[in-house]
Amino acid sequence: MRTRLLFLFRASISLLLFLLLLTWSAAEADDEGGQPVIADITLTASSGQLRLSAAVKNCFTKEMLEGVHNAIPVTFRFKVSLERSRSYWFDQDLEELSVNHTLSYDPLRREYQIDFSEKDHPKTTRSLAEAERMMAELKHIEIAQLKELSSGASYVLHIKATLAENTLPLSMHSIIPFTSLWNFETDWRVIEFKY
């Protein structure tokens, strides 16, 4: 009797561990091929500026990359807003900005070009992985002057990424049926902090 109970206990523990592992691996697979999300958000204070770094995960689809290789540029638009949080009153809007990253491909040179609205010059690369990384990353974007922030006050930063609607020329929306597969938009990420 005792050995039978011990066997049932071990079998139920093994089954429980198997189900837990199965659930964990399904969540991992969902993470890798899931919806686009803003991740790795970092706020820093340097050179008198509040700066933001972040990255979008799961933002490229096969259809988007095929479009890029067929000379259709892709533009990601990052929307960022900063508010001062005030109790018993409406929050005060401090800054609102939009940052665009546009990816295009030159088949003759076999290189990708990424245009950044926050930088003066575009970057080129022959590596698709590097082009995707540059498109999806925000690095040290100036959000606000530190002198505009009050010491000890609470602030809220909102950030979101979308595929810009003007990516395709107007006539191509009716010709290319897969454009709806290109649509992506992350949820707003909200970061609360004190300065």
Automatic annotation (TrEMBL):
The keyword Signal applies. Residues 1-29 form the signal peptide. Keywords: Signal. It holds the Pfam family DUF4390. InterPro entries: DUF4390 (IPR025500). This is DUF4390 domain-containing protein. It comes from Candidatus Electronema aureum.
